[in-house]
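Regression check, NDP case 278:
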Amino acid sequence: MKKITDLQGTFTLNNGVEMPYFGLGVYQSEDGQEVINAVKWALEAGYGHIDTASIYKNEEGVGQGIQESSVPREEVFLVSKVWNSDQGYDSTLKAFDASIKRLGTEYLDLYLVHWPVAGKYKDTWRALEKLYADGRVKSIGVSNFLQHHLENLLKTSEITPMVNQMEFHPYLVQQDLIDFCNENAIQYEAWSPMMQGKIFQMDEFKQLADKYSKTIAQIVLRWDLQKGVVTIPKSSKKERIIANADIFDFELSQEDVAKLDSMHKGKRFGPDPNNFDF
Ligand code: NDP
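Current build output:
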């Protein structure tokens, strides 16, 4: 397992690209000043990775935040996702063009299939393979793909996804899926790493936070990285954006990593990839 060193640290994807293992999520950050500020604050605090999606309706603000920051575009690992209603081959190519236009960029660092839409995701994937072959995106991946979705995709895909972005926190560890991804060189990535904010109301995490003199957010985000999982906590508040990334001056013991692992109860705060209707 790679050593976790600093906010600019990376995991290496199966195509050799270095992906910063810590990024800013912007789901529910409002387009305009809110998301512009969040992106600027994050980049200026040393984050090198921003995660958006066309459905978040804030790609313009994300692009503006990058432009207004002191960090050059080439130093930002920028991720977006094709939304379900755009899935299919031609429509995905169009959706990609629209996303990069809104983001004010020529390329993406990573483009993801947002959800495994039945009957469509293989065509969507072919479009991502084309974008990758054409050099318009540096890595391609999926999101919300369970093992059976991945197995089905891998039967016909030319390229193995570089990333699988999944709901992941101590109540939803899905270690079998992580193992499957590791065996297939697919980088696991956490969405809602802090249970969309609900983790802060749970006493069982407070003890661990006190033990390390850290916040609950810092404990779970450090756990993500020690497990080899990329993480993209969301905040639109400057102090939290800075504090959430302050996780490189301590290390969780193996026992405490295992303790967090053992809290798994299959609890989702977001939709189930086996049963969604959007
Ligand atoms: P998170 O688990 O990151 O939690 C975000 C919530 O926690 C917000 O309400 C935020 O509020 C609050 N928060 C953040 N830091 C702190 C702190 N230190 N103390 C107290 N509260 C805090 O949830 P998300 O669902 O946003 O997931 C993260 C990212 O993952 C998304 O932004 C998105 O980029 C991605 N994602 C991907 C999905 C997919 O299907 N691929 C689905 C869902 C998310 P505030 O902003 O006010 O600080």
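Comparison notes: The longest strand covers residues 77-82. The chain has a mean pLDDT of 98. No diff flagged against the previous build.
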